[in-house]
Amino acid sequence: xxxxxxxxxxxxxxxxxxxxxxxxxxxxxxxxxxxxxxxxxxxxxxxxxxxxxxxxxxxxxxxxxxxxxxxxxxxxxxxxxxxxxxxxxxxxxxxxxxxxxxxxxxxxxxxxxxxxxxxxxxxxxxxxxxxxxxxxxxxxxxxxxxxxxxxxxxxxxxxxxxxxxxxxxxxxxxxxxxxxxxxxxxxxxxxxxxxxxxxxxxxxxxxxxxxxxxxxxxxxxxxxxxxxxxxxxxxxxxxxxxxxxxxxxxxxxxxxxxxxxxxxxxxxxxxxxxxxxxxxxxxxxxxxxxxxxxxxxxxxxxxxxxxxxxxxxxxxxxxxxxxxxxxxxxxxxxxxxxxxxxxxxxxxxxxxxxxxxxxxxxxxxxxxxxxxxxxxxxxxxxxxxxxxxxxxxxxxxxxxxxxxxxxxxxxxxxxxxxxxxxxxxxxxxxxxxxxxxxxxxxxxxxxxxxxxxxxxxxxxxxxxxxxxxxxxxxxxxxxxxxxxxxxxxxxxxxxxxxxxxxxxxxxxxxxxxxxxxxxxxxxxxxxxxxxxxxxxxxxxxxxxxxxxxxxxxxxxxxxxxxxxxxxxxxxxxxxxxxxxxxxxxxxxxxxxxxxxxxxxxxxxxxxxxxxxxxxxxxxxxxxxxxxxxxxxxxxxxxxxxxxxxxxxxxxxxxxxxxxxxxxxxxxxxxxxxxxxxxxxxxxxxxxxxxxxxxxxxxxxxxxxxxxxxxxxxxxxxxxxxxxxxxxxxxxxxxxxxxxxxxxxxxxxxxxxxxxxxxxxxxxxxxxxxxxxxxxxxxxxxxxxxxxxxxxxxxxxxxxxxxx
Length: 803
What we know:
Layout: H1 4-17, H2 19-48, E1 59-66, E2 71-74, H3 78-87, E3 91-105, E4 111-118, H4 122-126, E5 132-133, H5 138-143, E6 147-150, H6 152-159, E7 169-172, E8 175-182, E9 197-200, H7 205-208, E10 217-222, H8 228-245, H9 247-250, E11 254-259, H10 260-265, H11 268-300, H12 302-310, H13 315-348, H14 364-390, H15 394-398, H16 408-444, E12 454-458, H17 469-484, E13 489-495, E14 506-511, E15 523-529, H18 533-536, E16 541-544, E17 558-562, H19 563-569, E18 579-582, E19 590-596, E20 611-615, E21 628-633, H20 641-651, E22 658-662, H21 663-670, H22 672-706, H23 708-716, H24 721-750, H25 766-792, H26 796-802
Parallel strand pairs: 4-9, 6-8, 15-20, 17-19
Antiparallel strand pairs: 1-2, 1-10, 1-11, 3-4, 3-7, 3-10, 5-8, 6-9, 7-8, 12-21, 12-22, 13-21, 14-15, 14-18, 16-19, 17-20, 18-19
């Protein structure tokens, strides 16, 4: 401390004497450290911190592998789950769950809540206990008792954290359900939405034997000592056994075991590692820039260091004093970076998968990371200039006008740093270019409909209140008649699933006159719609007609298919008049009356599948009842949202309405992850480009200053201003070219890690590589211009006289 405190005070004085230098250095470091701190906060919460379960590494999800129909992770059928549970030798227990929705009424306005119907053993598999009350019993599970566990968030928002909620009855779909417990605040399962409640998952004896309906999600806990590979092998063996036993339902159906964290994270993990690497590159470029600034300052302090050495200061003592100065800069940059990370935290929450803790506040882990990065940064950019400064002999440094630090090793080190900056900037720019092209490709994909000016909202009919098909039809007719009369409304229709909102909800089907091998029948996206829905979405009719008023419950059963369906079965003839039967709908053979253009029902990234659209009025026992309303308007769709809700409540005052928005919002949400990843990586790349250009400018500017005598001599001997300009520009372009060459070779290897994030573009796209290289050359030319112009204006007489 006796030596550190004086060094600290002296370092502060030096920084205050050069406020411009200090501000530039601290800002560059703050941006680099802030980017790393912000992205690390996400990596920590998503990929590092343990999940909120005991022994979370032993928790897995088990899926059916139905890759033959484009579902590599498919929800299993009930009977298959039963066999998995009974036959496996690798799990301590397995639990099933399925999505659930209820209309919550009473104790406030109607509200649509989303949760899970679960087996009584789910909380036991997870190792979670209710915060209040108790869990479900096996008896409640088997009998389907009307009991419910509330989420902490619902308990807080709807019931004000009232501990007296235990034992109270609440109305869900008009049915009294007794609250028996409240889940802990951190309760979560892999899901695309927040879980607001749990209810028992009751099955009838017929459902226990069902291998055709696939809608469960299965969680399991590995036995101690069982590896993921062993579990996968065991489940694959069971799947092959079931395929032999039940060929009509289980042919080509496998099983996939996935760690729960991987299920939570998905592609987000790859994106976060890429962003963290990009932020690291920005920090390295910032370090290189500050190191170059310190090298320039060190040249001015050579006589100071020589005098200190002559007075007996050891080399280690001089290095310590100079590194202390660099640490002061890095810690100040770290403080600025922490502030920037805190400010940007709210913007990054959307990158955290649903279900994981979204708290991005500053905590001990983040502070420790920030401090560590700050100290390491100070050593990285401070040690090289310090070593370079003290490496020159005392005599050389004491010579009047000595230039020991100007040439040789010092200049080469600055050149190496600039080359590294250019290479790192190129890698970031190429990566950002690939993601930007992916985003463009996703936006350019034809969705098959026009999303502009469409209001969307969800209004699910409670089965207890609308158990009769005629009542449901009357409800939809009444709502649509009211909505269509609203000012500015052009058309409206209900559907069971809006495009881009689900990748599934498929159904098997039969084609008249076509025989399928047992267990290998095809499936199609299954959508029940009201008569004007397809017209409302502006889905183009390719053949035949749309549904109309003539399609009633007592008329000929009809269906509309998409062009993928037609090409699969009638590629060279008309599909009109052909008949299919959608299994599970309990309807007779349905006649195809129309073929519509393919719609990207499953979003822009997944392959097209056959799709069938059925008139809801003709499907009295359908399982996919319409719940989503689309309203096409001639104005801002959100402008009529209130009127649309009032029209619905005029038909049924207790009907909850949720998910009010626009179709454009839904389409944008499908590419939101790509957009945010591209924006972040693009921002890092732009920052790297600016820092690299400043690095080139700084090196050339300093070189011109140090070579003033040489330039004056050249001009005195006849060199023209153009010759001098060319000399400086060639030096800058040579460094840039070397950096581009190194960067291209490294980028070619690095960008392969982006493959999972790319759509419609190759990781080695020559156009992007060439464009980035050209951009760097252009930026380098701009960065070279000012030092080159200054060199060309050197007066040879003044330069020689000063020497």
